[in-house]
Amino acid sequence: MSEGTNVATPAIVLGGSGYVAGELARLIAGHPRLALAAILSDSQPGAPVGAAFPHLKSAYPTLKFAGIEEIERLMRETPVSALFSAAPHGVAAALIDRLLGAAESGGVRTHCVDISADFRYASAKAYETVYKHAHGAPARISQFICAVPEHLKAAPTAHVAHPGCFATASLLASVPLLALGLTDPRLFIAGVTGSTGSGRKPVDGTHHPLRHGDLYSYGALAHRHAPEIAACAKQASGVEAEINFVPHSGPFARGIHVTVQAALKKPLSSGEAQEALAEFYRGCPFVRVIDTAPRVKDVAASNFAHLSAVTNGSSIAVMSVLDNLNKGAAGGGMQWMNRLLGFDETLGLTAPAPGWT
Description:
Layout: E1 9-14, H1 19-29, E2 34-40, H2 49-52, H3 68-77, E3 80-85, H4 92-106, E4 109-114, H5 124-131, E5 144-146, E6 159-161, H6 165-179, E7 186-193, H7 208-211, E8 216-217, H8 225-237, E9 242-249, E10 256-263, H9 270-280, E11 287-289, E12 305-311, E13 315-322, H10 326-340
Parallel strand pairs: 1-2, 1-3, 3-4, 4-6, 5-6, 7-9, 11-12
Antiparallel strand pairs: 7-10, 8-9, 10-13, 12-13
Helix pairs in contact: 1-10, 3-4, 6-8
């Protein structure tokens, strides 16, 4: 689609019946310039999308999941398309490579935003060191850049890798500290995520009777997102930071709360810290710096992130909250796709949080 027309650009979603795929479908339903053309499901092609996502039946009363061959045909024949990948890491790269190859064979234009981890690293070696398996499409890595939209004005590549939910919350809080030279590069990050961050398949970490009313850490100081946060922080700030990350499972479905702590290089009041954050994110429509403790319910199910900071003279704590499925995944991905297609980055994303999730 050319920038001056109002014809909807076909959007294709990889990820089957997963939570992020469902959130992408929900956001696309409300987008004025995107139309959902297909959702890939190798396991249930031909099954109604509304059966997997009952809350979306009104938006997609007749749409059925598509197989890979149908998606390939769409990619070859569609003049301009938007490809969103919410497929699992280790699977996404090969799928994306196959579909981008189909678009190239058809001589058509497509942009991809990958929400898995497969294109977050600048080399196959870096990816394989963390994920312990071969990269599915190493020749494609140079076609992607990984960044939070607020930290990179324009993508220098045709495709983008989304940093992920914990990383987005952590980076929004951390990068200003590093880029402005406010703190030492040793950062301590504690984050709490909702159960939807673990995916749709029931496991002990997400099963409601086990998770409700409880709070516990996992992967403390050894989680695979820590090197991803460090890599994106260095790209955005120019500073190589030491990331000490402890994630926690929270007893709620949607949202992330992150606290980043660091030693200040020179004394700074809480008010001055707030002003520094606000100035850093001036002109960023989805990041709000507030003077009270940010709450998950104020952003859950929206594409907004709230930040707040306090200091005690020698150290600073920056609190960051966002919705893991929206700003941390599907919404952040759509924000990037809007830019790649030449749209205003806020299109389809300005609905406020419902407040009583």
